[in-house]
Amino acid sequence: MRPLRVLSVTQVAAGESQSEPKRAKRGCHSTLTFFAKDKDGTTQPHDDALVITLKIGDYDVKRVIVDGGSAAEVMYPNLYKGLGLKPKDLSPYSSPLMSFDGKLVIPEGVIRLPIQTGPEVVEVDFIVVNTYFPYTAIVGRPWLHTLGGVASSLHQKVKFPSGGRILEIQGCQSTEKEELLEFLRGNLDVFAWDPCNAPGIDPSFICHHLNVNPSVTPKKQPPQRLSKEHAKAIKEKVNKFKRVRAIKEVFYPE
Predict the structure, then answer these.
(1) Is the peptide bond before 45 cis (omega within 30 degrees of 0)?
(2) Which residue has the higher pLDDT, 9 or 251?
(3) For the chain, which residues make up each domain, given as ranges?
(4) Closest residue by Cα to residue 51 from 27, 40, 67, 73
């Protein structure tokens, strides 16, 4: 689709007057509203993030998360490599970012790329970070505000005005879950649902030890009275672990 217009994300100066943008808004008659019918085709109730597919550069990029709480657009390694970008393509960016696990991340750099949604193109600055994230990129307030869009994770949509009409970007809620389930089904053999499913693990890799002070004489605890059913179940579980050498019995002197 040929772009109708190209917009660029800009930084508003601290002292710049906001009167002109307000007058521009008065002349805009497009109203972005979400209705109950906008939830048709979604799984309700849910607490899913809004994940969409966007055309970034010349590629349709899946698993892009829309985060209205983010003040920047962020790109992660999978997308960086998939677009064939090199370090020489990046401009310096030294301000650290806070990751979702609370750690500071030093960006690799920043690059300006176009995002096309229907006839609208918004040029945004993607901050490139080399850290794991389950999505390919984050688009936040700079992209949303420049596009004039409103996102609703409840309705799994982004709505934005274009040429006197209201256009929509549909979230990938069902696709997201289907892809995850398909991935899990295809990799069942790598999951150990029970210690007995992973016998022969080298103790140098992982081993559980009791935090016992060797200078303290162990004390034998009085036996607990268990029902026959509980005692039988415990015995079977212990014998199962012993057979695969997940545990071993240790004798202490009285």
Answers:
(1) yes
(2) 251
(3) 5-185, 196-243
(4) 67
Looking at residue 245, its amino acid is: R
Residue type, 87: P
Q: Which residues pair with 55 in a beta bridge?
A: 60, 116
In tens, the pLDDT along 65-83 reads 999 999 999 999 889 999 9
Annotation: CATH topology of 5-185: Cathepsin D, subunit A; domain 1 (2.40.70)
In this predicted structure, the answer to whether residue 12 has a pLDDT above a threshold of 50 is no
The predicted structure's pLDDT at residue 246: 75
Instruction: State the sign of the Cα–Cα–Cα–Cα dihedral 62, 65, 70, 76.
Output: negative
Q: Are 161 and 46 in contact (CB under 8 A)?
A: no
Residue 244 pLDDT level (bands cut at 50, 70, 90): confident
Q: What is the pTM of this model?
A: 0.62
